[in-house]
Amino acid sequence: xxxxxxxxxxxxxxxxxxxxxxxxxxxxxxxxxxxxxxxxxxxxxxxxxxxxxxxxxxxxxxxxxxxxxxxxxxxxxxxxxxxxxxxxxxxxxxxxxxxxxxxxxxxxxxxxxxxxxxxxxxxxxxxxxxxxxxxxxxxxxxxxxxxxxxxxxxxxxxxxxxxxxxxxxxxxxxxxxxxxxxxxxxxxxxxxxxxxxxxxxxxxxxxxxxxxxxxxxxxxxxxxxxxxxxxxxxxxxxxxxxxxxxxxxxxxxxxxxxxxxxxxxxxxxxxxxxxxxxxxxxxxxxxxxxxxxxxxxxxxxxxxxxxxxxxxxxxxxxxxxxxxxxxxxxxxxxxxxxxxxxxxxxxxxxxxxx
Length: 354
Prior knowledge:
Elements: H1 11-22, E1 47-51, E2 54-65, E3 68-77, E4 88-91, H2 105-115, E5 120-123, H3 147-162, E6 169-174, H4 176-187, E7 191-197, H5 206-223, H6 226-234, H7 238-247, H8 251-254, E8 255-256, E9 260-261, H9 265-277, E10 281-287, H10 291-298, E11 311-316, H11 326-345, H12 349-352
Parallel strand pairs: 4-5, 4-6, 6-7, 7-10, 10-11
Antiparallel strand pairs: 1-2, 2-3, 3-5, 8-9
Helix pairs in contact: 3-4, 5-6, 5-7
């Protein structure tokens, strides 16, 4: 097993399986011996599901993005027209994890929210899940932080609105998905709510990554954890990243204390201020030990949260980036639902009552 972004698609196995399915039955074979592809298959363009006492509908959601097909699954209420929904939610990939989300939590949240009357799209970015594109692009972590992925989110909002869904959105994601959502919200005033789960950083920079690695290595060295230091050094291309950064000659000049880059402070404050001025209800949900927590402490923002009353900082009470224990997932689900409630409560009166 490996990290999802390093998984390799077994194209030869797929090709062999498809060839077998397409083959003609052997002479004398009965219908029961025929490949499944030769048997009648029930087809449907959607599935109706029961969530408690409510029926919702799930359907594939596909659209063209500059010649590539973006794919997802849309859960929506069936009791009322989608145009009357108070808001539409979009949940994004958690790194290289397909649209089901961490521990399949996006599936559960999307169905639950659809039952509450909120259409919810689980979207795959280019090269992830069922969307077109080469997954090998993401072998380098920095590729998750390209600005054009936020553009794909905006394209999904455009497509939803073009299909009659409300032009008001709650966008959420974990790690890089949270990053895409953050920058999509900055670029588009239709985003009224934002859920940032274990956001790595407000702005991507290899310099930040190097400085954080160094900070963690120093902490581990003080505790004598040499094996863990070695794992950090060789993991996910960090040696190459450190060398590239050092050659650019910016680490020592741009670093303050052990993590933050001086030149980013004003940009981050400006971004948070823009979301505040638009009253974008924002949940920043962080597990214990997340590097952004250290940054918030070191740069003093943890003491300045009152400057952004639209921003709520909450903790997941364990050091697990994808919160694998069921009790932790339940904790996160409650926080997600509360974020949705705050966003709904902040909509115009007509939208809230829809």
